[in-house]
Design goal:
It catalyses: D-erythrose 4-phosphate + phosphoenolpyruvate + H2O = 7-phospho-2-dehydro-3-deoxy-D-arabino-heptonate + phosphate. This protein is of the alpha/beta class and 449 residues long. The chain has 13 helices and 14 strands. Strand 8 (264-267), helix 9 and strand 9 (289-293) form a beta-alpha-beta unit. Bound molecules: erythose-4-phosphate, phosphoenolpyruvate and manganese (II) ion (MN).
């Protein structure tokens, strides 16, 4: 991949536009030095892989595949360890296996991983016991610790973000291509879950069917090598544009720009202004793009986003990630889907059942109810069923660890349990067993569809 000065400028057109949610870096010279260094670093992904993901998402847009996108709300530098990465990947692969079988379609697996270090916030400051400090904006910007020093934005963190992403992606690639993620192994993990989970009996029938299907394939002589590797892609919110554009390169094969920090990037609910820098940036790169759509999104907004980001109406280029809230999805989603479908555009529709369902527990913990999450997904399936459109997938915040951040689930977490293992740096995540519960329950919905 070479960098050609003229085309590379296309990665900077955002600079003349208002960019929401950017840190107030105190030292602009230090930032410039960091950007220059990042520009010299090698790509984290190959542009051809981004094209491959776009093609896979094209199948989702056509109703021939399902997208599972998930991972942390905010990755943290001190959580870049083998166990955490493995557990997250394991959980996503287990969910993917269940959904693949139940839906009888390929499941495109995309992690919120290897780059999900930057957070948009609803308030610029945080106050504790009368002390007010700048809000935490993700490990790429400042520290989580509630001290004045930690909360100062430090551009050196952008380099740490790159290195943490590289280390994470390296292990993910090793696991997914080196045999760890063998489908038979993934199925064995699911069988363990079904055996040990209080709600597992409900899923026993499905797990048994998968078992039979695998035995059947085995008996037919399907090459076991086929099961050994799995395709897995990385994604994160393209929030800090200095970082994203420093990692935007001209692909030597095509002369087009790619953000090589991840296979897919998305634009968040707080930064999707049509005349803003984030949409401008996303419009210039060839990666598959996601956009979060909250409950105030109008059909006109959605159509204008399509014009900006998918002018060629290319299935797989654009994914709308709706995050309406369980109480609004049945009301807000139909008009969006109807008008977009009527326009002839073929976008991928996926459901983020997390961000519209957050509330603060009496203990002060930000949390979500598993039942609300499930209900939003149910509403999403109902709407698509009634319109005859494809419920393309889900986008969830999860971890492979046994944290206590969301309430409910088969192995029920109560509000009083939240303090036990509340480890997230930002939003509450489904823990391992809640994530698997969700996969089995979504699998049932997908089948009914
Ligand atoms: O992850 C998403 C956002 O950063 C988060 O929901 C914002 O949360 P806040 O309201 O705590 O800033
Ligand atoms: C910030 C996030 O979501 P949204 O933009 O939908 O609020 C997120 O996905 O963590
Ligand atoms: Mn979040």
């Amino acid at each position: 991949m070479t960098v050609n000065a003229e085309t590379h400028a296309g990665g900077h057109t955002w600079r003349s536009l208002p960019a929401a949610q950017q840190p107030d870096w105190p030292d602009s010279e230090a930032l410039r030095d960091v950007i220059a260094e990042l520009e010299s670093y090698p790509p984290l992904v190959f542009a051809g892989e981004c094209d491959q993901l776009r093609a896979r998402l094209g199948a989702v847009a056509r109703g021939e595949a399902f997208l599972l996108q998930g991972g942390d709300c905010a990755e943290a530098f001190d959580a870049v360890g083998a166990d955490q990465i493995r557990n997250k990947l394991k959980t996503l692969l287990q969910m993917g296996a269940v959904l693949t079988y139940a839906g009888s379609v390929p499941v495109v697996k995309v992690g919120r991983i290897a780059g999900q270090y930057s957070k948009p916030r609803s308030k610029p400051t945080e106050t504790r016991d009368g002390v007010t400090l700048p809000t935490y904006r993700g490990d790429s910007v400042n520290g989580f610790e509630f001290t004045p020093e930690a909360r100062i934005p430090d551009p050196e963190r952008l380099k740490r973000m790159y290195h943490a992403s590289a280390a994470t992606l390296n292990l993910v690639r090793a696991f997914t291509t080196g045999g760890y993620a063998d489908l038979r192994q993934v199925h064995a993990w699911n069988q363990d879950f079904v055996k040990s989970s209080p709600s597992g009996q409900r899923y026993e029938a499905l797990a048994r069917e998968i078992d039979r299907a695998l035995n059947f394939m085995n008996a037919c002589g399907v090459d076991p090598e086929e099961f050994k590797t799995v395709e897995f892609f990385s994604s994160h919110e393209a929030l800090i544009l200095d970082y994203e554009s420093a990692l935007t390169r001209t692909d030597s094969r095509t002369g087009r720009l790619y953000d090589v920090s991840a296979h897919m990037v998305w634009i968040g609910e707080r930064t999707r202004q049509l005349d803003g820098a984030h949409i401008e940036f996303a419009s210039r790169i060839r990666n598959p793009i996601g956009v979060k759509l909250g409950p105030t999104t109008t059909p006109e907004d959605a159509l204008a986003l399509i014009d900006r980001l998918d002018p060629d109406r290319e299935p797989g280029r654009l994914t709308f990630i709706t995050r309406m809230g369980a109480d609004k999805i049945r009301d807000r989603l139909p008009e969006l889907v109807e008008k977009v479908t009527a326009s002839g555009a073929r976008v991928v529709w996926i459901c983020d059942p997390m961000h519209g369902n957050t509330f603060e527990a009496a203990s002060g913990h930000k949390t979500r109810r598993f039942d609300d999450v499930l209900d939003e997904v149910k509403g999403f399936f109902e709407v698509h069923k009634s319109l005859g459109t494809h419920p393309g997938g889900i986008h969830v915040e999860l971890t492979g660890d046994d944290v206590t951040e969301c309430v409910g689930g088969g192995d029920e977490i109560f509000v009083d349990d939240l303090h036990q293992r509340y480890e997230t740096a930002c939003d509450p995540r489904l823990n391992r067993s809640q994530s698997l519960d969700l996969a089995f329950l979504v699998a049932e919905m997908y089948r009914d569809q």
